[in-house]
């Protein structure tokens, strides 16, 4: 009985934090980071300013918590994709591209929020470092999946850093193009085609005797 009160309080605090994170996403998406305020977020969540400041020290801290939350969800999705890839091996590069695209879905609201906050962070060295670190964590989680998938095809990535940078560049650039294009079908096909070119350009056929080459030989 003595632990029931503290446990309930911890659970309630977690629920409050969750509602604030969800409400902040809605407010940031609708109004933009620059026009958002603590008052608007707590009003959306149904709390007071006291509830906000018992969980977050500032609007920036809240945003970074939301960024971390969404990053963790993406990394979790990558882990799920790895498990699925182990069950269903790709039969071609197009299958690998499909897996990559599934891991980096197009989300217009999140793209708008993150682009605006990134511009804000570029003026603040500390924030810029935090965002760069979290972007790197996502890339680090994505790379093993792609290495694994390409390994099934007997391909290797000689320069992983360059590969990840190219993937991120194509992802960010084509996402904006897709969101601005009224004809979604062709835009998505061009996006997939660019990803395919990157995968082929930044990977090589594995040398004979390497694990990737042996795996491809076994498949045949």
Automatic annotation (TrEMBL):
<dbReference type="InterPro" id="IPR036271">
    <property type="entry name" value="Tet_transcr_reg_TetR-rel_C_sf"/>
</dbReference>
<dbReference type="InterPro" id="IPR001647">
    <property type="entry name" value="HTH_TetR"/>
</dbReference>
<feature type="domain" description="HTH tetR-type">
    <location>
        <begin position="14"/>
        <end position="74"/>
    </location>
</feature>
<dbReference type="GO" id="GO:0000976">
    <property type="term" value="F:transcription cis-regulatory region binding"/>
</dbReference>
<dbReference type="GO" id="GO:0003700">
    <property type="term" value="F:DNA-binding transcription factor activity"/>
</dbReference>
<dbReference type="Pfam" id="PF13977">
    <property type="entry name" value="TetR_C_6"/>
</dbReference>
<keyword id="KW-0678">Repressor</keyword>
<feature type="DNA-binding region" description="H-T-H motif">
    <location>
        <begin position="37"/>
        <end position="56"/>
    </location>
</feature>
<dbReference type="InterPro" id="IPR009057">
    <property type="entry name" value="Homeodomain-like_sf"/>
</dbReference>
<dbReference type="InterPro" id="IPR050109">
    <property type="entry name" value="HTH-type_TetR-like_transc_reg"/>
</dbReference>
<dbReference type="InterPro" id="IPR039538">
    <property type="entry name" value="BetI_C"/>
</dbReference>
<keyword id="KW-0805">Transcription regulation</keyword>
<dbReference type="Pfam" id="PF00440">
    <property type="entry name" value="TetR_N"/>
</dbReference>
<protein>
    <submittedName>
        <fullName>Helix-turn-helix transcriptional regulator</fullName>
    </submittedName>
</protein>
<keyword id="KW-0238">DNA-binding</keyword>
<keyword id="KW-0804">Transcription</keyword>
């Amino acid at each position: 009985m003595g632990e029931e009160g503290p446990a309930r309080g911890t659970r309630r605090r977690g629920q409050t934090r969750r509602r604030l994170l969800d409400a902040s996403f809605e407010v940031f998406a609708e109004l933009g980071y620059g026009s958002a305020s603590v008052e608007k977020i707590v009003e959306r969540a149904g709390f007071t300013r006291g509830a906000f400041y018992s969980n977050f020290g500032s609007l920036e801290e809240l945003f970074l918590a939301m960024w971390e939350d969404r990053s963790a969800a993406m990394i979790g999705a990558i882990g799920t994709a790895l498990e699925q890839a182990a069950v269903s091996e790709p039969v071609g590069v197009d299958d690998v591209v499909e897996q990559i695209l599934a891991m980096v879905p197009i989300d217009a609201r999140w793209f708008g929020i993150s682009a605006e906050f990134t511009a804000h962070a570029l003026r603040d060295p500390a924030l810029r470092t935090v965002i760069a670190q979290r972007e790197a964590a996502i890339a680090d989680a994505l790379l093993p999946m792609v290495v694994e998938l390409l390994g099934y095809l007997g391909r290797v990535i000689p320069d992983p850093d360059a590969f990840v940078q190219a993937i991120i560049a194509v992802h960010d650039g084509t996402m904006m193009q897709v969101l601005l294009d009224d004809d979604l079908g062709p835009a998505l096909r061009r996006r997939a085609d660019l990803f395919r070119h990157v995968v082929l350009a930044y990977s090589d056929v594995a040398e004979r005797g390497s694990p990737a080459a042996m795996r491809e030989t076994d498949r045949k």
